[in-house]
Amino acid sequence: MKTVKAEIIAIGDELLYGQIIDTNSHWISQELDLIGVRVVRRTTVGDNREDILEAFSKAEGRADIVLITGGLGPTQDDLTKPLMAEYFSCPIIEFPEAVEAVTSFFKRRGREITPLNILQGHLPSCCTYVPNEVGTAPGMWFERNNTYWMSMPGVPHEMKKLIKDFVLPKLFELFDLPVIVHQVIKTVGIGESWLSDLIRDWENALPQHIKLAYLPSLGHVKLRLTAFGENKTSLEQEIQEQINLVFPQIKEYIYGYNEETLESAIGKLLKKSNKTLALAESCTGGYVSHLITSVAGSSAYFQGAVVPYHNQFKHSILGVNDETLKEFGAVSEQTVKEMSAGVRKLFNSDFGLASSGIAGPDGGTESKPVGTVWIACAGNGFIETKKLQLTQDRMLNIQLTAVAVLNLFRICFSRK
After folding, report:
1. Is 180 within 8 Å of 227 (Cβ atoms)?
2. Which of 40, 79, 141, 376 has a Cα-to-Cα distance from 205 of 20 to 30 A?
3. How many CB atoms are closer than 10 A to CB 200?
4. For residues 30 and 114, is the Cβ–Cβ distance under 8 A?
5. How confident is the model at residue 179 (pLDDT cuts 50, 70, 90)?
């Protein structure tokens, strides 16, 4: 079976200058990977005629499908459409259906359409017009020398809809794509190298058509199993058998699968057991609360939170003893114990989580350098704590602490 190769070209000075992060190419790569299309190159090009045409020429020489994002606006610095017309040697003409779509888009929103907006319905005559139902810049599909091209707006939600509704079905129509099945095991609380050591024998025994990838991120490691074959059902069964084999070796670190997040996994635990949670966040400044409440339905188990940044509020709101703060300081095991117990009592919740630390870049001492953090989990008859020694980076410390706090709760919940 022939490997189908793709190249992604992202166009725009704002991408090169770092004013906008190119999340589009990353998302497209993931979608193509899921259907067995191999991305051989991702190119970012500024708003420059020669550079864009050179990118087009090189892509045509190495890819079966070229996906282009950006540069389709109505202003003079948007070069993609005129340069595609130049590259494919065809004039730009009016597409009545495209003009009608743009006009209707503005009318539905009660906005006045300008002559410049109308020009978005003018496209290279050699392209296939692809309606953009959620924006004004249409997609453009080209075919030449067994290479297929799709030009799309750079606006992420517009691009994603065109990929889902048009590009992916078109690829299945044009190419004999392999059957590929992915499953992702989500782990937390263990580093990549330690995880690799634990599962080395299992990994080495994987069948040839099942590949394993380690995908580390902040505090997490994802294990992605990818199976290649001809029958989806049998591949899914084989992957599940492999997950069942490795599960006993790493079950204490697994919190979920595929798209599940640590916060959604914790929400499921709380909801299923009809338990509630409250938070006392000092160094994380509400970040853990943000993660918890990003999950739909979290009001069923999340009682509330306090961000007692100053010691006086650790005392007056959460009931931390003045003596504890004076003797041990805000960043101490004793303080987070009292914080977690205090917030649990304050919100009448089943569990209370607390964090207190030195996020940085200032505030560290010889005995408590930047990155020193204490976390605690309080429940019925127990309080568990953990000390973290993190980095010099403030935001990184906040994010790592949040993962550690949620993981501490997960561990406590499984033991109690």
Report:
1. yes
2. 40
3. 10
4. no
5. confident
Cα–Cα distance, 28 to 154 (Å, whole number): 12
Q: Kindly report, residue by residue over 70-113, the tens digit of the pLDDT.
A: 999 887 888 999 999 999 999 999 999 999 999 998 888 888 88
User: Average pLDDT of the chain?
Assistant: 95
Question: With contact defined as beta carbons under 8 Å apart, do 264 and 186 qualify?
Answer: no
Paired tokens of 178: 């392999």
Homologous superfamily, domain 4-174: MoaB/Mog-like domain (3.40.980.10)
Return the closest-CA partner of residue 143 out of 80, 60, 244, 216: 60
Give the C-alpha separation, 173 to 159, whole Å: 20
Phi, psi of 179 (to 5 degrees): -85, 120
The correct CATH number of 179-257 out of 3.20.20.70, 3.30.70.2860, 1.20.1420.20, 3.40.30.10 is: 3.30.70.2860
Q: Tokens for 331?
A: 């960043």
Residue range 348-369: mean pLDDT, rounded: 95
pLDDT value for 1:
66
pLDDT at 113: 85
The per-residue b/e assignment along 107-131, b for 16 or more CB within 10 angstroms, e otherwise, is: eeeeeebeeebbebbbbbebbebbe
- Domain 262-415: give its CATH code: 3.90.950.20
pTM, two decimals, is 0.79
Same fold, 4-174 and 179-257: no
The residue whose two tokens read 């040839």 is 208
Beta bridge partners of 141: 128, 150
Q: Is residue 329 over pLDDT 90?
A: yes
